[in-house]
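Q: I'm building a small set of examples for a reading group on sequence design. Run inverse folding on the following structure and report the sequence directly after it, with nothing in between.
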């Protein structure tokens, strides 16, 4: 299965459904099952933002309890859409969708970047220890969800 590594708290908030998009500076033509891996690094600056703290609290997490270095969820990557406009309070994707709210807050919607749209996100019952990699990488083990 293809896997995408992400820093915390972004990975957990994505898997927990606080946003339906992951933003990247690069496009992928891959569509299909994808697992989400948490890197060992935590973005402590992001964790200090009040809105991020509120979302983490809602799900019972603090920066020190966020899982690290593990695969935490699986989803289906359905689309990769270019960002064509960003006016600070919203962003516009090339298919005309307007991004705002948590989706905007939890992503990097720079013009020229990409929003990866997913569906059917599931948190794994048991996290899978794994060493992450850059880009999309392959994991050949089993998943239980």
């Amino acid at each position: 299965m293809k896997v995408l590594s992400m820093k915390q708290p972004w990975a957990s908030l994505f898997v927990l459904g606080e946003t339906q998009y992951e933003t990247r500076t690069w496009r992928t033509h891959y569509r299909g099952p994808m697992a989400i891996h948490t890197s060992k690094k935590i973005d402590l600056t992001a964790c200090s933002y009040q809105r991020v703290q509120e979302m983490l609290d809602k799900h019972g997490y603090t920066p020190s309890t966020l899982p690290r270095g593990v695969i935490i969820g699986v989803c289906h990557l359905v689309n990769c859409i270019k960002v064509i406009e960003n006016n600070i309070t919203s962003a516009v994707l090339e298919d005309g969708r307007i991004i705002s709210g948590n989706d905007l807050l939890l992503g990097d919607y720079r013009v020229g970047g990409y929003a990866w749209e997913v569906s059917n996100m599931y948190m794994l019952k048991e996290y899978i220890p794994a060493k992450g990699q850059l880009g999309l990488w392959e994991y050949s083990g089993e998943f239980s969800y």
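Residues 2-80+116-132 form a domain with the Archaeosine Trna-guanine Transglycosylase; Chain: A, domain 4 fold (CATH 2.30.130.30).
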